[in-house]
């Protein structure tokens, strides 16, 4: 799930929330906004088991991303549109 909060400086705070990943120790958000770097946006595990991370991104832009689980799985955001990626899979799509 994605929560968007517009800011006055033509940017948007994007909060990524992953509700279910019980078999993994950590999750990161990887996308074209952070060079697909698995260390750039680690998610924090909340007490209820969900994962959450926030980042500020330019407003009115389109970004592709995935959730990268510690076991190597790429997880889509089930509330976002998707698009094909060059590796034969799909990426989630975010519009700020």
Notes on the structure:
The chain has 96 residues and is mainly β. Helices cover 0% and strands 50% of the residues. The chain has no helices and 9 strands. Strands 3, 6, 7, 8 and 9 form a 5-stranded antiparallel β-sheet that branches. It has a 4-stranded antiparallel β-sheet with strand order 1-2-5-4, with no helix packed on it. A hairpin with a 4-residue loop joins strand 6 (62-69) and strand 7 (74-75). It is globular, with a radius of gyration of 13 Å.
What topology does this entry show?
Elements: E1 2-6, E2 11-18, E3 27-31, E4 44-45, E5 51-58, E6 62-69, E7 74-75, E8 81-84, E9 90-95
Antiparallel strand pairs: 1-2, 2-5, 3-6, 4-5, 6-7, 6-9, 8-9
Can you give the mean pLDDT?
Answer: 94
Order of helices and strands: EEEEEEEEE
Number of helices, where a helix is a run of at least 4 consecutive DSSP H or I residues: 0
Helix content: under 10%
Class based on secondary structure composition and strand pairing: mainly beta
Segments where pLDDT lies below 50 for 5+ residues?
none
Gyration radius, rounded: 13 Å
Q: What gross morphology would you assign?
A: globular
Task: Please report which band the strand proportion falls in: under 5%, 5-15%, 15-25%, 25-35%, 35-45% or over 45%.
Answer: over 45%
What is the terminal separation in angstroms?
Answer: 14 Å
* Main sheet makeup: 5 strands, antiparallel
């Amino acid at each position: 799930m994605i929560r968007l909060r517009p800011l006055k400086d033509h940017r948007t705070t994007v909060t990524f929330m992953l509700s279910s990943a019980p078999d993994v120790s950590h999750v990161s958000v990887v996308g074209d906004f952070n060079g697909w770097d698995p260390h750039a946006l680690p998610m924090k595990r909340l007490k209820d088991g969900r994962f959450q991370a926030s980042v500020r991104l330019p407003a009115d832009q389109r970004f592709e991303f995935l959730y990268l689980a510690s076991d190597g799985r790429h997880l889509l955001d089930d509330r976002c549109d998707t698009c094909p990626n060059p590796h034969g899979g799909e990426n989630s799509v975010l519009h700020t």
